Amino acid sequence: MRIDLHAHSNASDGTDSPAELVAAAVAAGLDVVALTDHDTVSGHAEATAAVRALPAGSRLTLVPGAELSCHTDGISLHLLAYLFDPAEPAFARERELVRTDRFRRGRAVVERCRELGAPITWEQVERIAGAGSVGRPHIASALVEAGVVATVSDAFTADWLANGGRADVRKHETDPVEAVRLVRAAGGVPVFAHPGAVKRGRTVSDGTIAGLAAAGLAALEVDHMDHDEETRAHLRGLAADLGLLTTGSSDYHGSRKTVRLGEHTTDPEVYEALLAQATGAVPVTA
Length: 286
What we know:
Layout: E1 3-7, H1 18-27, E2 32-35, H2 44-52, E3 61-72, E4 75-82, H3 89-115, H4 122-129, H5 136-145, H6 152-155, H7 176-185, E5 189-193, H8 206-215, E6 219-223, H9 229-242, E7 245-248, H10 268-277, E8 284-285
Parallel strand pairs: 1-2, 2-3, 5-6, 6-7
Antiparallel strand pairs: 3-4, 3-8, 4-5
């Protein structure tokens, strides 16, 4: 089985619609794909309908999820949440709070960029985002369009949009221990996304990860494009020490990033172990 547990649609900052993501997963030969848009489940219905409309004999399974924005000790981090009940009130309220503040933060970041000499506009960023919730990748795309940087990745530096960068503005982000508890209370399974991605900014300590494990974290996303081999080895050892599972995922964003769907995958036994912990929702099959 080929299992990719981290992919985005244009419901957040990907470029594929949820239905297009399903089609891309089939074309990539995946057996399982997780839709994990940032702080939203708005793409779930379209992706579910696309999977159920696949021809008879199709083997693709959709895992509904989300990627949650968290913050602790001055460090931003992301938590993947799988198979939670999207209607559970406490978790739904927190996602809405984070999502609403994305709008305020996005406008503030655009204004910072303009103050720094970048000829971009909020209207331009909204056009790029389309129906999706505006995020920094949309602003990065505007910087590319304006010729300020060559690629989206080049925008995520201290000069522009990196955490703590010149144009960065803090948004509401959930405490990660509280996020783990919210996901579990909604019947979901929490996994720490790219915990060693130092190119994105500061990363949390092993002690912080141990605290998340004690709160109910299920796994670490180890095989990821932003982790080198040394980082992966360290994270595997840490996961073993803490009794956590390890996953692999592409973190696919369509054409906004160069990574391919299925470039990194999760072991089938790990996938089954994650499913066994979920009580809030079930995967969607063709």
